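Chapter summary example.
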Amino acid sequence: MEKSNLVTLIPKICSGNYTQQELTHFVSLVQKISLSYLKYQEVIGKHIRWERKQRSTELEDMAIDCVAGLFMRNDQDEFTQLKRYFEPHLEKVPAPDDVELLVLLRRLVIKKTKQELSRIFKERDPEGAKIIRNIRVAVKNAADLQTFREMGREYIYFAPVTEEVELAGEMMDGATASYTETAPVLDEVYLRKDKPTIPEKVLRSQYLDNYNPKDHVSSSIRKMLAVVGEDERFQNCLPTDVIARLIRHTNLEVVRTRLLSQFEEVSPLDYVRMQEIARAKKNVLKKIEAKIQNQYVASGKISQEKGDIYYRTLADVLDDITHSKKIESYFRHLRKYMPHLTQKQYRREERTIFEYLGKLTKKWFREYLKDLL
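The structure predicted for these 373 residues follows.
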C-alpha cells in the first residue's frame, strides 16, 4: 500500500479541515483497501462478481458501494462513522503513527466491506443466504458436527461425540440443545487432509440415493458426510458452500416436481380462470401505467426513469398477489430497483406517491376479481 501520510490526513478528515484533493485521495485509498479484499475473496474461490467479465469494472464499483457508508455525513457535514472510530485512537498518548493508523483503517474498511457483501449477497440470492443460515444453525445445535476454516473457506465434518455430551443429550429428553464446547484440535489424519475434496457430481450422485424430501438440514448434512466418510479417496469433510448448493439443488427439484403435479391436476375450468386472472392483471397494469404517465410524469412530479421504476415495481407487487407469494413491504419491493434507497429517503421522497399507486393497483385488481367471481 502506498504511503499516504495518514498521521496528517485522518485528523483532517475527522475534523473537517481537509481540501477536496485530500478527501479524494483518502476515498481512493479506502476503495483500494476494499478492492484488494474483494480480489482476495475471488482468489480463494468466492463468487463476488455478478458478471464474470475480465475487463468489467464491477469489482471496483462494488468496492465503492461497500465503503460508501463510511462517508455518511450528519447535519454538521461531519463523517460520523470515521470520527467515532478514529478520534479515541487519535486522543491517545503517544498518538498512533502511520503504520498503526493504516492497520486501523484496514480493519475498519474490511469489516465494512464484509458487512456490505453480506447485504449484497442476501439481496442477490435471498434463498441461498437462507440455506447458509440454516446450515450454520443446524451445525451449532448438533453435538456431532463441527466446523473449521481454511484458506478463507468453511468446512463441516463429523466430530467424535464424548460420553458426557451423549449423556447430556439423553437428559434433554429429545429437546434441541446448543453445544458450546471448544472445538477439538483438528486431526489431519482423521480428516484425510492429504486427499482431494470429493467432486460435487460424485457427492450428488451418491447423496441422492439416500435423499428424503422430509429430511431436516442436519439430516441432509449427515447423509452427505456419510458419503465422504465411507470413501477414503477423498477428504473426510465438506465445504459449507458445496453442502448449500446441493441442498438448494434438491429443494429446487422437489419444488419443480410439485409444480408439475399441480399443473397436471388443473381442470379446464381452473385453466379458464387462470387465463381470466392474467387478463385482469394485464388490464390493471395498463391503467396504472397510464396513471403514472398522465398524472405524474407529464406534470413533472416524477421523472420518466422513476415512472418506469414505479411501474416495474407495481408489476412485481401484482405478481406476488397473483402467485400467492408472501407480500413484501412497498419499501423492499422498490429497493430492488433502487438499491441505494434508505428508509429515510423512502419516507421523505417516495412513499406518498408510490403507496397511493400501490393501493390503487390493489383496488383495481380486486374490482376485476369481483367481476370474475
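To summarize the output: The first strand starts at residue 145 and ends at 150.
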